[in-house]
Amino acid sequence: MPYWEIFTPENAFTPEDKEQLSEAITSIYVDYQSLPKFYVVVLFKDMPANTMYVGGKPANNFVRIRLDHIARQMDGAEIRAMFMGLVEEKLAAFVKDRGYDWEVHVDETPIDLWRTQGLVPPPAHSDVEKLWAKENRAIPYEVAS
Amino acid sequence: MPYWEIFTPENAFTPEDKEQLSEAITSIYVDYQSLPKFYVVVLFKDMPANTMYVGGKPANNFVRIRLDHIARQMDGAEIRAMFMGLVEEKLAAFVKDRGYDWEVHVDETPIDLWRTQGLVPPPAHSDVEKLWAKENRAIPYEVAS
Amino acid sequence: MPYWEIFTPENAFTPEDKEQLSEAITSIYVDYQSLPKFYVVVLFKDMPANTMYVGGKPANNFVRIRLDHIARQMDGAEIRAMFMGLVEEKLAAFVKDRGYDWEVHVDETPIDLWRTQGLVPPPAHSDVEKLWAKENRAIPYEVAS
After folding, report:
1. pTM for the complete prediction?
2. Per-residue pLDDT tens for A73-130?
3. What's the order of all strands across the beta sheet hosting B114-116?
4. Can you tell me the distance from the alpha carbon of A106 to that of C25, in angstroms, rounded to the nearest whole number?
5. What are the chain B neighbours of C107 within 8 Å (beta carbons)?
6. Which domains does chain B have, with CATH numbers?
7. Which residues in chain B are contacts of A7 at CB distance < 8 A?
8. Do the chains contact at C108 and A113, CB–CB below 8 Å?
9. Which of A12, A87, A106, B144 could be joined to B113 by an S-S link, Cβ 3.0–4.6 Å?
């Protein structure tokens, strides 16, 4: 969590682009929500010509982004709009400024149906979460029952 | 929104098939909900042999479709069943009639966590949405606050 | 339903691995929920180097699993935790024991927006579902209205 899927035309992004974009995406969650970095997963998927269609026509200049939010549900219209604004800001240099069309949507999924490295992730802002963030890895701990 | 992912055996569909099927899918939303055409995104994904499994066995004659609905939540059992009926009707010529096995499911995701071309999509049936539909593109407008 | 997507480094799993893992996944639903086997769909997706990023860095030793639950919503914290435990147990031989990093999350989607072979799946634990399970295929029946 968060889990991003980014569909692009083939070879739209170099490995350097992908690293930079995934760093920019990671920074949203680290800077604003103090999430451990390693919670942020971004998958890039090259889509060959004639595999993406928009309005019934091939869309070979299109970037489609779909993400799931798990660890933090965003409460309140303001914070949700702010998040979407941050997403657009981080994407701009890679997508809008390069002349691609694009669309983004987010789903929210149940926090209790999530495991990382086989562990129940610690509660938001708990000491264990802070430790995981500091060490940037999942560390076994005693789950409160 | 709507966002369709269609997983097929490799080369199951020609580019012409994909264009026709994505047009048929688009027509559901344009004819029944007056959505702008460009809201309808369909991604086709070729799945090589031994990458799809059904009930623990390789399923190399299988089409799996997963979609997200964002812009319109469908209220009422009747309209939801009617929508699923339309989906099956549009798919039939490409899937059932060609002898594939198939399965479809739909998720519904939050409308406020969706942007197209960096813009907040206009309210359903608003004048701006009608303009977007007529021009078949996202046009900046003043978002009511 | 259930619908699993498993993203792995290229060639992480042989066809034999994939068949065994999908059988292990299927057994969760058959043994604990008496679902028809063919409800369980698992898609495996090879991810080339530099297409998966974790915390802004390439993650070329990472298995990411995302699944949708449709047919059965799991009620109660205990059953949900038990399910996640079973998932980890079934994955271990293929993922943890082979030294991969991994993460899993589950979404839950509306049961009424699901069709298999064009049919409305029968109610949980109904006689028709039992017949589908026994025959391991979708059989047309009269849907109660």
Report:
1. 0.97
2. 788 999 999 999 999 999 999 999 999 999 999 999 999 999 999 999 999 999 999 9
3. B114-116, A101-108, A62-69, A3-9, A41-47, C52-54, C57-58
4. 27
5. 107
6. 3-114 (3.30.429.10)
7. 43
8. yes
9. A106
